[in-house]
Amino acid sequence: MRKTTVLRAAAAASAVLLLATACNSRREQDEQGTAADGACKGQQTTGITDKTIKLGGIYPLSGPASAYGTISKGVDTYFKSVNDKGGIDGRTVEFVVRDDGYQPPKAVEEARRLVEQEKVFAVFQTLGTPSTAAVWDYLNKRKVPQPFVATGASLWGTDDKHPWTIGWQPNYVSESRVYAKYLKDEKPKAKVAVLYQNDDFGKNLLGGFTEAVAGSGIKVVAEESYEVTDPSVAAQMSSLARSKADVLLNITTPKFGSQALAADAKNTKWNPLHIVNAVSASATVLKPVGFKNVQGLVSATYFKDPADPQWADDAEMKAYKDALRKYAPGSDPTNQYNAYGWAVASSLHKALDAMKCPTREGLRDAVRNLKDVKVDMLLPGVTLATGRGDAFPIETMQLMRFKGERWQLFGQPVDTRKEFGSPAN
């Protein structure tokens, strides 16, 4: 997938940071003495000792995407739970969280703080495509791991110039292909209206969907975009309704996802099949609209829903809910974003265990050499797998439909690698 305008804008913010870094000769002096010995000689050990690992994360704890901020609670809860059991290979994990407000320039500022002041081992989880794009040049120049970024942009798996950065969740192109396949099977003559966020996130998913339905009987008949600074998407939804499309593809972040769902429910003269992208499928997005107003909504997922009673006796789900009550009292254990945080932290644990060297280079290599690694919070059949020519850790998703007060899985898990091939194709 080619880079879009938002990525170039993010690069401008990154360039400012790189210029400042080039002028900071103190960096080399500060990091003297942080190289490993023995078989790992010369590799970086900044942020990791025999007893500790220091990680940093950048999330929108404030601003238009603040609903995602609770992911950091799920991550922090996982690490605190692990610390109580002796840590990761005997190392206690410290997780330092920074708020960028979903603003790329602020992400740049926080990345620099984490690396140059906090001296973290890795910047684990930068959330959002624009923020991640703003900092990856800097982190790769500094050779700081940026594992399992919280964005499904296909770029993190197709780019070969940033070996220190890798995604985690299914990429947006593959997700869009899952929806396209569903429509080809169920509504092969569908007329689709699309609401999308006007940045690399929205364009990546929309582009993948458009390509996936090309040549079929499915037609995209209307498109409307919005900016993250917009107060509302009401006007866009009114415009899309006039298209009389029988499918609405909702490519939004939580705030705007709720608005779009509410507008759809309010307009009783337009009743399209509503598909919402996975990053806005949390019940916390749906609940303000009223569950009765989102019946039949379709989305896709890859990790266990803590609100789904089928996981009530699942050992990992019990561990997650017990830990959240202990370490993040007041947090909602049924919030899928908290469960996402637990799942991605557990995935990093697996990668840290797999390091051949306890170094930054060791982590960089480990996340790119995962062999069907099982993570207990992921759905059955979903594993972490990377290797030469494949930098997409999770590529299996399953469709779900909202019924009653929760999501219900349906159909079979779709391995998008086998079904569609590389998202770069």
Helices and strands in order:
Elements: H1 5-22, H2 26-30, E1 52-59, H3 71-84, E2 92-99, H4 104-117, E3 122-126, H5 129-141, H6 155-158, H7 172-186, E4 191-197, H8 200-213, E5 219-226, H9 234-241, E6 247-251, H10 254-266, E7 273-276, H11 283-286, E8 298-301, H12 315-327, H13 336-353, H14 360-366, E9 373-374, E10 383-384, E11 396-403, E12 406-409, E13 414-415, H15 416-420
Helix pairs in contact: 1-4, 1-5, 3-12, 3-13, 4-5, 7-8, 9-10
Strand/helix succession = HHEHEHEHHHEHEHEHEHEHHHEEEEEH
Q: Please state the CA-atom Rg, rounded to the nearest Å.
A: 21 Å
Uncertain runs are 1-6, 19-33
**Helix proportion:** 25-40%
The termini sit apart by: 8 Å
> Taking all residues together, what is the mean pLDDT?
92
Task: Describe the largest sheet.
Answer: 4 strands, parallel
Spatial order of strands in the largest sheet: 5-4-6-7
List keywords for this structure.
425 residues, alpha/beta, four-stranded antiparallel beta sheet
Please explain how this structure is put together.
This protein has 425 residues and is of the alpha/beta class. 39% of the residues lie in helices and 16% in strands. It contains 15 helices and 13 strands. The strands form 4 sheets. It has a 4-stranded parallel sheet with strand order 5-4-6-7, with helices on both faces. Strands 8, 11, 12 and 13 form a 4-stranded antiparallel sheet that branches. It has a 3-stranded parallel sheet with strand order 2-1-3, with helices on both faces. Helix 3 (71-84) links the parallel strand 1 and strand 2. Helix 3 packs across helix 12 (315-327), helix 4 packs parallel to helix 5 and helix 9 (234-241) crosses helix 10. It is globular, with a radius of gyration of 21 Å. It starts with a helix and ends in a 5-residue tail after the last helix. Residues 1-6 and 19-33 have low confidence and may be disordered.
